[in-house]
Design goal:
With 426 residues, the protein is mainly β. The protein contains two helices and 30 strands. The two termini are 53 Å apart.
Length: 426
Amino acid sequence: SDVLVYDLATDGSKHLWAATEKGVYDIDLAAEEIPQATKESPHTYQGYSGAANEVGGIIDVSSLTGTPGAVYHTRFNSSIGNSAKYLFYLNPENTPPVQMIGNPFPESTIGSMKIIGDELYVVQGGSDATQNPRKRTIVKYAYSAGIWAKSYVADFFPDAGLYDDTRGYYIRDIEVNPTDGTIWLATDGYAFFQAPSSLGVFSNRVCKAGDGVVNTTSGLTDWEDPTDDYYGLPGDCAAPGAGWRHILKRPNSVEGIDNTAFQYYGALYTDSGENTWLGSDLGVRGYISRHLALSATRFVGISRRAQITLEDMEPGTDGYVKITVGSVSANFPAFFDTTGKISPITFGFTYDQSADPAAIPSPDPILFPVTSSAEGVKITVEYFRNAADAAATLTAESAWAEIVKFEDDLMIGGPCFLETLWSLSK
């Protein structure tokens, strides 16, 4: 029979978890014929029945537990006590397969869940009847030896009257910068960020953007100036752990929308370069921390030159760029200017197999030996933010190829039959 599905999650290879009105279905993606549920009835928590088993959200946690499994919470239903307040861990190999983890927010519903690093972050959804209705809490869970351990992360607590109470308090998504621990929040009204203090602590207060004073250097006012974050004493919100700061857009004259206007932010994503992307009701907004690029996706001919551009707003220690063409590699130090950019690195190609691009000092021009082949030659550029890093922070790929001249005569040797494959009748 048909079943209403509220959410989906997968481990990417074998299991697809379907959060439905009846419980969680485990769909086997590795089935011999077609993907199908591993059993006819869904997984449910013992003691729950009927609408209490409606699942509102689910996330695959196989990367945390080392075994196939998911964490879910029930769907909010005003007629059912404690709905959407408890987390459950589903492991098909356990008996029973579903265990209750607990309620992260005793008197509030669960808003969103996300795996960040090796921990599960959970954000409070609705207001807590026992606390101020404007307050929201963030916690995280670590898994070890079958136990889910909860720890407090931060509170988000705007002042009364700072925003319209109907918007701006529901946190839709969360991200954490893996390097400095900065937390990003996407809410119904605005987007925010905060870096932790030196002790790893976050303030619960939300900074008020703008003080009505024009920045004499930039000419920007109030909500247009990303540095103009004030809460009480001027400037004290810019310090790590001092409060949640608004993510401000470019000047209104550029974007056409005032920063004071509510904007719905529904999703957050931080990529391997620690660039943060926000999905909103006006499209995708990106905050770029670092970027690596090659001047083309394919270089044809021995005379072509490739150019590397790199930007890093927070470079590490003795970072470098590694260029690999075919089987030959060479490293080049990454020296950044005050704007976070390096002087573009340019290199080329040669048939001279004795060429050494790694020679010191660097040859001018830098040439990598290549051999013409049907498959082409792979080019990989890697940026290592720190000299001691084992894995590259950013990677870009391309290829080199040679076009060989050939005669334009058509010759068909041996017995041959030419067939008309398609024709158009008048």
